[in-house]
Design goal:
single chain, alpha/beta, Rossmann fold, seven-stranded parallel sheet, binds ligand L4XM7KOE, binds NADPH dihydro-nicotinamide-adenine-dinucleotide phosphate
Length: about 300
């Protein structure tokens, strides 16, 4: 896949990107990374771990999390922190409460939160049921609030502070084929603004990152055979003319969590090789016409 090949080699340093930060940056701090077993979440957990944090990764698939932990344990250096995993479905308040309790019990109060878990399916809006729209909003927007609230209440509201990074998307120009996710992520972009104001008095910074198209096997596997065609059509609209890597997102997340960003809050940082500056929707559509300016995706493309 040519688009993927262009991204290869960018994360060859091992462990990735630690060289640009002090290895003591997060020494002893407890970090929770949801979705930390794969893709962007794994790259972020990996970087925080190698920068000294005690990192809990959490998602639904235990076997994936266990494998991720084993990989990190095998990479351990003198500078590395601790790593642990537990399962969670972030759509459940009870499960999220249990996750926070377990993380605090194991590694102490959570100071760094990366609310990375999320996703969606591709469908044009005309084929999308309200139930499907709602399930994606629940997963991405409502569950981001749920996780942030649970961590704030338990660990960050006491004035000792913390830093939160949520996962958004490049949605400035809308997102044909992903109306649900784009609306949810636009909600996240606004949510971090309000939370950053309300929680500033507790010393908590709240930011988001908005990745463009980031290649990882786990992410692409959700799009099946459609991925290659979609990507071929998408690539010309990316000024950098390549996809991003999970490590390129992890570096920005680590910066936002770090004291280097101590005066940054309420921001959403685009990580898309300039794609957020291109004034056209990110997803490719059929040939536009006057009566139907954005064309159509195949109806209800179940990928
Ligand atoms: C990076 C890939 C490149 C390929 C090119 C694409 C370009 C896009 C660029 C954007 C970049 C973004 C990338 C990523 O986000 S990577 C992460 C990818 N991971 C995922 O997306 C997986 C996450 N998905 C899920 O967890 C679930 O699908 C979801 C939460 C979204 C739904 O789960 P839920 O359990 O709530 O769903 P149900 O099965 O109960 O269904 C509820 C209703 O939802 C509708 N639905 C569900 N799935 C589909 C589908 N595949 N297609 C259409 N509709 C769907 C449906 O209405 C369900 O109701 P019914 O069962 O009654 O029909
Ligand atoms: N790749 C890309 O181009 C882009 C990705 N993003 C967003 O970045 C984030 C990471 O994506 P990426 O690494 O690419 O893809 P992945 O599919 O690798 O990551 C998604 C992660 O979310 C976890 N997850 C999904 N649903 C739940 C749930 N209900 N409860 C707990 N965990 C859940 C998954 O684990 P499990 O299935 O085991 O629960 C998985 O680890 C997502 O929010 C994604 O939408 C945003 C912009 C672009």
């Amino acid at each position: 896949m040519a688009a993927v090949d262009r991204a290869a080699g960018l994360a060859d340093c091992d462990p990735p990107l630690t060289g640009v930060f002090s290895e003591q940056l997060f020494r002893g701090q407890c970090a929770l990374v949801t979705g930390g077993g794969t893709g962007i979440g794994f790259a972020t957990a990996r970087l925080l771990f190698h920068l000294g944090a005690s990192v809990m990764i959490a998602a639904r698939r235990e076997v994936v999390l266990a494998e991720a932990c084993a990989t990190l344990e095998a990479e351990r250096t003198a500078a590395s922190g601790q790593i642990g995993f537990t399962t969670v479905d972030i759509r459940s308040s009870e499960a999220v409460s249990a996750l926070v309790e377990e993380t605090v019990g194991r590694f102490g109060p959570i100071r760094l939160l990366v609310q990375n878990s999320g996703g969606q399916f591709v469908s044009d809006a005309a084929s999308m049921s309200v139930k499907g729209f709602n399930s994606v909003v629940q997963l991405n927007l409502v569950s981001t609030f749920r996780v942030a609230r649970a961590v704030f209440d338990a660990c960050m509201s006491d004035g000792r502070g913390g830093a939160i990074v949520a996962m958004s998307l490049d949605v400035d120009n809308g997102m044909p084929g992903m109306a649900h996710s784009a609306a949810a992520r636009a909600g996240i972009n606004n949510l971090v603004k309000t939370l950053s104001i309300e929680w500033a008095a507790s010393g908590v910074r709240v930011n988001a990152v908005a990745p463009g198209i980031i290649y990882s096997e786990s992410a692409f596997s959700h799009y099946g055979d459609a991925a290659e065609d979609l990507l071929s059509a998408l690539l010309p609209a990316i000024p950098a003319k390549r996809l991003g890597t999970p490590e390129e997102v992890a570096g920005v997340v680590a910066f936002l969590l770090s004291p280097a960003a101590s005066y940054v809050t309420g921001s959403t940082v685009a990580i898309g090789g300039g794609s957020h500056l291109v004034r056209k929707p990110l997803l490719p559509m059929d040939e536009p016409c006057a009566s139907q300016p954005y064309g159509r995706l195949p109806r209800k493309a179940r990928l």
